[in-house]
Design a protein that fits this description.
29% strand; globular; 8-stranded antiparallel beta sheet; alpha+beta; 10-stranded antiparallel beta sheet
């Protein structure tokens, strides 16, 4: 049963943690059934997932906690969308309340319920079409000495797909990643497990951190040195982010590159940290670095032109960001007792799929890779297959 599936996984959680996780995923199932905007997310580490449920809102109308309590919202940024155009989901219902919802309860929450829309199918390209596109893009990259991140769609159908159960399996498979499942009428339903931080901000210390996350190879490579192509790709990202930090008067500390694992593949990563100057909002930096060359390319405008010319699909939320924004009560002597930001933790929306919330189980996994001069089309195709493999197996039902 679904109950036994939930309770059997993630055995290192406490009994109360497992019960909380079960309630969260039952709530997600009810939200999908009734078309209620919601989000479930799992921060890296072993703790119960967070649940957000309520009316999704634009940045100017975000519902935030009262001045007497701390709270948080789930933030969604689409591909190329700035902070000001994000979608926020508050905590209007608890997970236990949502799990108990029935159809008649719609009258108790006016404006909360919406009608799920069918997923609009995107074009899926053949291997030959992909190879031709990679060859054309790498020639453009050669001429400008740049990089473009080219993505494709891997689609499938699974009429018996249980989306919350699939989310639970994905979160368990990648406990060190940011697992997320969310639905709003504007974005549709998305599921993913992202290993890449876009921006973390600690309001108490004003520390900001991100990463240059670029360079991919099979995990079978072990501890062998990285090749020149992947090292160059990672350096593109690190240099770009460094320059963006400097535009706001910050000199970031950048670590040496090191290897991190994600399922059957490895990535090359550098950590980047700095202190945000007083008076400067963290979303100024977010907008400057989003999207990074790890999801777009460089020079930025040339890479965007390649994406527009050669990708047959719209990215939607892929390549955007997902994250949690914290609020905390202001000090007692603050006029008005207002609330203030407590921090923000965001990840790039990748290793993800958009899924129809209607019966039929249709899904589209988006996977991409960085193209440079000399990129091999066959190797790039294989890289997208590897990146999508675990999520594909879960959504298609082969892992159940």
């Amino acid at each position: 049963s679904l109950r036994s599936l939930y309770m059997a996984s993630d055995s290192i959680l406490s009994a109360s943690g497992r019960a909380q996780a079960e309630t969260v995923f039952l709530a997600a199932r009810k939200c999908l059934r009734f078309g209620i905007p919601f989000a479930v997310c799992h921060l890296p580490g072993n703790q119960p997932p967070d649940f957000f449920c309520g009316i999704e809102s634009s940045a100017d109308n975000t519902t935030i906690p009262s001045s007497s309590e701390a709270g948080k919202t789930f933030e969604i940024g689409r591909w190329l969308a700035p902070w000001s155009e994000r979608t926020s989901i508050g905590q209007h219902l608890s997970a236990s309340q949502a799990a108990l919802l029935e159809e008649a309860d719609a009258e108790s929450y006016p404006g909360l319920f919406s009608t799920p829309e069918a997923l609009q199918a995107d074009n899926v390209i053949t291997r030959e079409e992909y190879h031709d596109a990679v060859a054309a893009i790498t020639e453009r990259c050669r001429l400008r000495e740049g990089k473009t991140v080219y993505s494709r769609v891997i689609s499938g159908e699974n009429p018996s797909l249980d989306i919350p159960a699939a989310a639970r399996m994905l979160f368990d498979a990648f406990p060190s990643s940011f697992g997320f499942l969310y639905y709003t009428p504007q974005t549709g339903c998305w599921l993913g497990a992202s290993p890449e931080t876009l921006l973390d901000f600690d309001a108490a210390t004003r520390r900001v951190s991100t990463m240059a996350f670029a360079g991919t190879r099979q995990a079978s490579a072990g501890d062998t040195p990285w090749d020149a192509k992947n090292l160059r790709e990672n350096r593109f990202v690190a240099d770009y982010i460094r320059d963006r930090f400097r535009m706001l008067g910050m000199e970031p500390k950048i670590s040496r590159p090191y290897t991190v694992s994600y399922g059957v593949i490895q990535h090359l990563r550098r950590d980047i940290q700095a202190t945000l100057p007083k008076g400067l909002e963290f979303h100024r930096l977010l907008d400057l670095i989003n999207p990074t060359p790890a999801l777009c390319g460089t020079p930025l405008e040339a890479a965007l032109e390649d994406i527009r010319d050669f990708e047959h699909h719209t990215r939607g939320c892929y390549g955007g960001f997902v994250g949690i924004r914290h609020y905390r009560p202001s000090p007692a002597n603050d006029d008005g007792g207002s609330i203030s930001p407590g921090g923000f933790r965001s990840f790039v929306n990748l290793r993800s799929a958009r899924i129809s919330s209607l019966p039929g189980g249709y899904f589209e996994i988006l996977a991409g890779g960085g193209l440079l001069q000399g990129s091999d089309p066959a190797s790039e195709w294989a890289e997208t297959e590897s990146k999508a493999s675990r999520l594909l197996s879960i959504l298609s039902g082969r892992s159940f």
